[in-house]
Amino acid sequence: MYKQIYLCLQQLSRRTICSTARRQVDNMVKEKQKLFQADNGIPVHLKGGAMDAILYRLTMGLTVFGTGFVVYELLSASMPKKS
Amino acid sequence: MAHQAHAYHMVDPSPWPLTGAIAALLLTSGTAIWFHFHSLVLVTAGMILLILTMIQWWRDIIREGTFQGHHTPPVQKGLRYGMILFITSEVFFFLGFFWAFYHSSLAPTPELGGCWPPTGIITLDPFEVPLLNTAVLLASGVTVTWAHHSIMEGERKQAIQSLTLTILLGFYFTFLQAMEYYEAPFTIADGVYGSTFFVATGFHGLHVIIGSTFLAVCLLRQIQYHFTSQHHFGFEAAAWYWHFVDVVWLFLYVSIYWWGS
C-alpha cells in the first residue's frame, strides 16, 4: 500500500511538473480485491503482506513497552523518595 | 462453511482497539508525568502509538470495504449512523466551550471591568483576517460539494482538482490562523477572554487539521480508483465532517470575533 502511495505521488508530481508527459495512475483495485479475498484464513490486518507483520510487531512492541513503562513510572511516582 | 443469518459485518479479530486504548493510557499518564517530572518519553510514545493505531485501523476498514466488499447497503447505513452520531458528539463538545464563552461574556464580572471585551484586552478586528478565514472556509464548502458532484458523475479529473482545492483552502485557513495566533495582542493567560478565545478557536483549528487530513486520504483514494459514482461513503463522511468544521467556525466568528469584540 505504501509503495502504491509513493508511486501515485511520484506520478502525480511528474504530471503537475511536466504537462506533456502524462501517465495515468494504474487502477490496481482488481488486484487488491484478489489479494484480500484470497481464502487463506489470514486476518485483514496481516493480509497485505510482510509490511503488515512488521508494522504490527512495531505497534505491539510499543504497546507492551509503553504499558510496562507506565507501570514503572506510576509506581515510582507513588514512592515519596524516588520522585 | 457456516453462513451468517444477519446482514451485519462481523470483523476479523483486530489488535487495534487494544493498542488504541494503551495509546490513550500513555497519553494521559504521560501528560501527568510530563507536568510533574519533565519527562516527554511516555507522551511521545503515546502519540506514536496513537498514529500507528489510526493508520492501521482505518487502512483495515478500507481493505474490508473496497477490497473485500463487506460494506453492503445495510452495513453502509450503520456507518452513516455512526458518523452522524460521532459528529453530534463533537457538536456537544463545542457547545460546552460556547457555553463557557457566553457565561463569561454575557455577565462580565467586576474583575474584568464589568464589560466585554474586558478592560485592557485589544481584540482582533473581525473584518480583517477573521473575515478572510470565513471566506476561505465557505469557499472550501463549495469546492467539497463540487468534488462530491464530480465523483457522482464519474468526472475523475474534476473530482481530483476540486478535492485538491478544498484541501489547499484548508491549509490556507490553518496558515492564516497560525499567523493570527502569533500576532495576537493577547494570550491564553489573559484572563477568561484569553482562555475562551484560544481554547475554542484552538480546538476548532485542530478539527480543521483533522478534517484536512481526512480529505487528503480521500484524495489519495480517489486517485487510486477506490470510489465509484454509486459508492463513496468515505468521501461523504469526510465532506460531512468538513461542513461541520465550517459551521463551527461560523458560530465562532459571529460569537467570539464579531459580537465579542
TrEMBL record, chain A:
Q: How does it sit in the membrane?
A: Single-pass membrane protein
Annotated keywords = Acetylation, Membrane, Mitochondrion, Mitochondrion inner membrane, Oxidoreductase, Transit peptide, Transmembrane, Transmembrane helix
Q: What GO cellular-component annotations does this UniProt entry give?
A: mitochondrial inner membrane; respiratory chain complex IV
Compartment annotation: Mitochondrion inner membrane
Segments traversing the membrane: 54-75
Q: Which GO terms describe its molecular function?
A: oxidoreductase activity
Q: Name one GO biological process term.
A: mitochondrial electron transport, cytochrome c to oxygen
Protein's pathway: Energy metabolism; oxidative phosphorylation
Q: Does the keyword Membrane apply?
A: yes
Q: Which SUPFAM superfamilies match?
A: Mitochondrial cytochrome c oxidase subunit VIIa (SSF81419)
Q: Which family does it belong to?
A: Belongs to the cytochrome c oxidase VIIa family.
Q: What is this protein called?
A: Cytochrome c oxidase subunit 7A2, mitochondrial
**Species in which this protein is naturally found:** Esox lucius (Northern pike)
Taxonomy of the source species: Eukaryota, Metazoa, Chordata, Craniata, Vertebrata
Automatic annotation (TrEMBL), chain B:
- Cellular localization per UniProt: Mitochondrion inner membrane
- Entry-linked InterPro entries: Cyt_c/ubiquinol_Oxase_su3, Cyt_c_oxase_su3_dom, Cyt_c_oxidase-like_su3, Cyt_c_oxidase_su3-like_sf, Cyt_c_oxidase_su3_a-hlx
GO biological processes: mitochondrial electron transport, cytochrome c to oxygen
Q: Where is the Heme-copper oxidase subunit III family profile domain?
A: 4-261
The UniProt keywords, alphabetically, are:
Membrane, Mitochondrion, Mitochondrion inner membrane, Translocase, Transmembrane, Transmembrane helix
List the GO molecular function terms.
cytochrome-c oxidase activity
Q: Where are the transmembrane segments?
A: 16-34, 40-58, 79-102, 129-147, 159-177, 197-220, 240-260
Q: How does it sit in the membrane?
A: Multi-pass membrane protein
GO CC term (a single one): mitochondrial inner membrane
The reaction(s) catalysed by this protein are: 4 Fe(II)-[cytochrome c] + O2 + 8 H(+)(in) = 4 Fe(III)-[cytochrome c] + 2 H2O + 4 H(+)(out)
Family annotation (PANTHER family): CYTOCHROME C OXIDASE SUBUNIT 3 (PTHR11403:SF7), CYTOCHROME C OXIDASE SUBUNIT III (PTHR11403)
UniProt subunit comment: Component of the cytochrome c oxidase (complex IV, CIV), a multisubunit enzyme composed of 14 subunits. The complex is composed of a catalytic core of 3 subunits MT-CO1, MT-CO2 and MT-CO3, encoded in the mitochondrial DNA, and 11 supernumerary subunits COX4I, COX5A, COX5B, COX6A, COX6B, COX6C, COX7A, COX7B, COX7C, COX8 and NDUFA4, which are encoded in the nuclear genome.
What does the UniProt function comment say about this protein? Component of the cytochrome c oxidase, the last enzyme in the mitochondrial electron transport chain which drives oxidative phosphorylation. The respiratory chain contains 3 multisubunit complexes succinate dehydrogenase (complex II, CII), ubiquinol-cytochrome c oxidoreductase (cytochrome b-c1 complex, complex III, CIII) and cytochrome c oxidase (complex IV, CIV), that cooperate to transfer electrons derived from NADH and succinate to molecular oxygen, creating an electrochemical gradient over the inner membrane that drives transmembrane transport and the ATP synthase.
Family to which this protein belongs = Belongs to the cytochrome c oxidase subunit 3 family.
By what name is this protein known?
Answer: Cytochrome c oxidase subunit 3
